[in-house]
Structure formats: structure tokens, C-alpha cells
Amino acid sequence: MMRLFKGGTVVSGRGTKRADVLIDGEKIVQVGRNIIAPNAQVIDVTGMLLLPGFIDAHTHFDLDVCNTTTADDFTSGSRAALRGGTTTVVDFACPNKGETLHDGLKLWHKKADGKTYCDYGFHMTIDDWNETIEREIDDMYAEGISSFKMYMTYPAMMLGDELMYCALKKLKEKGGLCGVHCENSGVIDALIKEKKARNLNRVSCHPETRPDYLEAEAVSRLLRIAQAVDIPVVIVHLTNAAALKEAEAARKRGQKVYVETCPQYLVLDDSVYYNPDYLEAAKYVCSPPIRKISDQKALWGALRRGEIQTVSTDHCSFTLAQKEAGRHDFTAIPGGIPGVETRGELIYTAGVTTRKISLATMCKVLSENPAKLYGMFPRKGVIAKGADADIVVYDPQADHVIRAEDMVSQADYNPYEGFVTRGSIAQVWLRGSLAVERGRVIAGCNGVYIPRGKNSL
Ligand code: MN
Ligand code: MN
Q1: What predicted TM-score, i.e. pTM, was given to this entire model?
Q2: How far is the CA of 239 from the centre of ligand 2 (A)?
């Protein structure tokens, strides 16, 4: 079936232009002024912005973590994603301790296949390094996994400097890419012990034991390890000005560094942790923690200058009942917040309408750059001939209020409750099918696995 989107403004990483978009089945076949297509169904998008379907390259669906399982599985998580304009997620496949990467991949396909509303791919977590895992890396590329993840904190997951060096060396052979969670593990553990020795247990102990400079230290160390290997790396969920400076220093040395941040670090500040109501504060516990207003400003500036390439969500949702677990032990609060359903409207409202970033930059950081970085471009990330017809129709006039009760995420709260958006998502199209109309998800489980290729950013 042919459809013609008429009268809208098409957004790309280069800017905006008035253009019609003709789609045939799952693909975009033409973009241009005054397209004539007598057999096409016309969709009037006068006054609307058309953006390439958003890509969220950092989600955790159906993850067993902190002695519990995330509130969102692939079904509810991907419905939430789609409702928020995200047509593709890249989730983190994670083998159980002692199992192989193949086991991890099989497990993630079992969690996702046939149960997912938007398209999806997987990064592969490397939380151990040995000859078996090294041999498996080649197979991962054959399976469409072109990006990996490592941790510098969480004793159960972290590799240590030597193994991280070895793993990056292997990925370099393959032209591979690795995202890294950067926080100094040892000093954080010592600070936690000090709090506990003094019987301090407020939620604010969470940010106080994970200060910005211990994130910056890990960023710096990662980038020096990457320098030794001579490989580009991705710093995931970067939160603060000091860490940004380390990325800039590495670039000045000639290194290629990709940086991701998340909406929570752009629109919230650490005052959320000082709410005297336990649950109100625990809602916001995530790692690294939410920082200061001055850090928000630094992040927006870096986005504007192209020094941060992607905004993903680190969606890792829990219910308030699950957040109860840490009432008497701040280290037992499940770490993570929901975000996949609100990213587009938050970035448009807080970034574009305030002129902190342009629409073109929004398009880059939500769609085009993640598509390139994670090997899906130009199938994804752009409204152009030959691309999948993944289209977000954004109505700049339809302001609304973010409410947890409207969300399809299984988290029973929203970190942005009461936030007034500028405009809202009117429609979401996934590979040529109308998937969301004015906040209502009408699609079924039509998501497909997207095998990915190499970084082209
Ligand atoms: Mn992380
Ligand atoms: Mn994460």
C-alpha cells in the first residue's frame, strides 16, 4: 500500500525542509516537494514535523538485577518505547555468570522474539574475559551484534583494567565498538562502607557515595586504556562537566570518543535525592546519579557543539514496591528509572523550544547518530528513499502534561510527573504501519530483530 504524507516539515541532521514523503509498504520511496501519487492514500500532516523514528540505544528490558526483575519486559517496554516515538531499541543482552556469549544471545532472543512492539537489536555484555569468550566475538558479528558493553563498577560485572585492555584489543581486530559504564568502583565501595559505619542511610547517601569526580576518573582511565589499544569507545550515560572534560582531553590527543547522555541528566538535578519522603527520593536512584544544574548546562552545551553524539534513556524501570527494598539500606534500592516513553517530548521541550539545541541536533542525537554509530544507517535514522518508513509525526501545538497514569510502562510512577511538554507525538509509524495515534498504541507485536553492521559515524 502506498501512502503520501503531505504538507509536513521533514527533519534531518542537516536541518528542516518542507517536503512530502511517499511510502510503499515498509519503505520510503520518495521525499520531495509536491509529489503526485494518485494511487496513494494521502495523510495530511500540515503543520507537523516529520522525524525519523527515534532510536534508543540504551534500554534494559526483562533484566534480572538487584535481586529483582525490571518492571518492564520486552512487551511493555517496547510498547512504551513506541508510544514515545522510539521505533528501534538496542537492549543489553547479558549472559548469566559463567555462561557464554552465545547463551546470553539465545536468552535475549527468547525474551524478545515475538514479544516486541518496536524493532530491536542487542549489544552484548562482556562481564568476563577468557579464551572461549574471545573466540565467540567473531560469531557475535555474524549474528548482527556489532557493539559490546563493559563495566568499570559493580564487582559482579566489572572486568578490571587488564582484561578490559585485552577485550578492547580483540574488538579492535573486528573494527568493533564498546560502550563502557564509567565509575570508580573501589573508592565508591569505601565511601559506602564509611556511610554504613556511621549508620547513615538516607537516599542522599547514593549520590554522595558516587560523586562526579569518581565518574570522571573512570572516564579518564577508560580513555587512557583505549589510547593504549588505539580504539574508539563509547562513554555511556555521561552525567557531568568533569567527565566531559576528560572526553575533550582525549579528543585533543587525537582519540575518537563517542559520548552518550540521558534525559534525566539534562532535565533533573540532585535535589530529587534530598526529598524527606523515602519513596519520592528513591524513585530517582540510578547510577551514575543525577547531578547538578551546572552539569545540565555543560551537557546541553556539549550537545549543541556536537561533543555528545547520542541521547539514550538507560530505561531500567522498577515499581514503587520494588523501590521499597532500600528503605533501610540505601545500597539495596534497585537502581534505574523509566525513560523510554518520554525521551522525544522531553528533548523537544527542554532542548529545542528553549533553543538550547536545534531540531537538526535533536534529530541527530535521537535518530541519525545512533543509527550510524550502531550500524543501522541508512535503513534507520533518516527519512530518505530506501529507508524503513519509521516516522514520528510531531505536533508542535499539542502541549500536554506527563502523567504516570497515562503511561504504558509497567513502572507505576514517572520521574517527570507534571512536566508540561511543548507539543506532543501525534503519530508513530513503524515500517509503514500506523503504530501509535495520539498516545494510543494500535500496533501489535510487530517488532523485528535488526542485525547490525559496523559504525559509520
Ligand atoms: Mn550503567
Ligand atoms: Mn544501563
Answers
A1: 0.98
A2: 13
